[in-house]
Structure formats: structure tokens, C-alpha cells
Design brief:
There is one protein chain. About 45% of the residues lie in helices and about 25% in strands. By secondary structure, it is an alpha+beta fold. It folds into two domains: about 60 residues, Ribosomal protein L9, N-terminal domain (Ribosomal Protein L9, domain 1, 3-Layer(aba) Sandwich), CATH 3.40.5; about 110 residues, Roll (Ribosomal Protein L9, domain 2). The N and C termini lie far apart (about 65 Å).
Length: about 180
Amino acid sequence: MEVILLERIERLGQMGDIVKVKPGYARNYLLPQAKALRSSKENLALFESRKVQLEAANLKRKQEAEQVAEKMNGLKVVIIRQAAETGQLYGSVTGRDVRDAVREAGFTIERRQVVLDQPFKEIGDYKVRIILHPDVDQTISVAVARSAEEAERNAKAAAKAAAEAAAAEAAAAEVVAEA
């Protein structure tokens, strides 16, 4: 099935592109969410007449998303979960949990904006990609811990390890410069 894209879709195309997609993808996702129109002469004429308005609205949404991304830069959220002594979680941390933690931090996002390859099943620090607009995304840090104190200890230990690694790298650079 051929469709006309009304906005940029990752791994598919830019606004105005006519792309061939599977019928189910078009029927169940692109068309109901107004991300595309069926490719026909009438719809192509409709798109051309609305193209300037669509581009202006897209540019405005992109600018707003860039402002939010700037505010979200460096955001670190902590998710508290019960876990075994080995660090294995009783359950898992999903996109919904990350969305709730980011909302508690003061940002309004939807679950579908959180990109997780798979749910987190162990305690630790993770990087999560938040898609604010098809052209704008931001990476945040998510710490999964048994308690807030444990999350703080882990963050301090990670900062100390990063500082030691930077010092070791600087020392190695001095040795190479001397040689």
C-alpha cells in the first residue's frame, strides 16, 4: 500500500514522501494517527494545498521539543524496586515506569516516547532514549535501585570511577607525550 507521509517517520521517510508500506502498518498505525494519507490523486492535491501549514506546525512542534530537550539535558531519575541479593529484580522496569519517573521529575511525556530495547531486569544505571519529536530526542539516565540511599551510593561510586578513569587517561597521555 502506498501512502503520503504527513510527518517524518524514523526509518521510513520525510514529510511528503510517497512510500510503500505493508497494509496492516498503514491501517493500524499511520492512518489512524494522522501520520499519513492513502496515496491517490485527490490526497496528493490535498497534501500539496496543506503542505505549508503542515510544515509550519511541524517546525513549531520541533522548536518546542528542542526547548524541552534542553531542559531535560542531564536528567537522572531513580526508580526504586525490590530485588534479590544478586541484583535481580522481582519483576522488571518498563517504559511505563520510566515515563512515570520522568513525569515526577516535571516533564510531560507519553509511554510511546520512551525507547527501551527490552525491560530492565537488574539493578543498575541505564541510558534511555526519549523521543520528543521525530527530529529531536534526548538521552536520560535511569538508576534502578533498592532504595534512594543505594542509588546515591552507586552514583557516587560511578562518579569516582569516572574520575579515576579520566586521571588514568590523562596520565597515559602524559607518558605518550614524553615518549
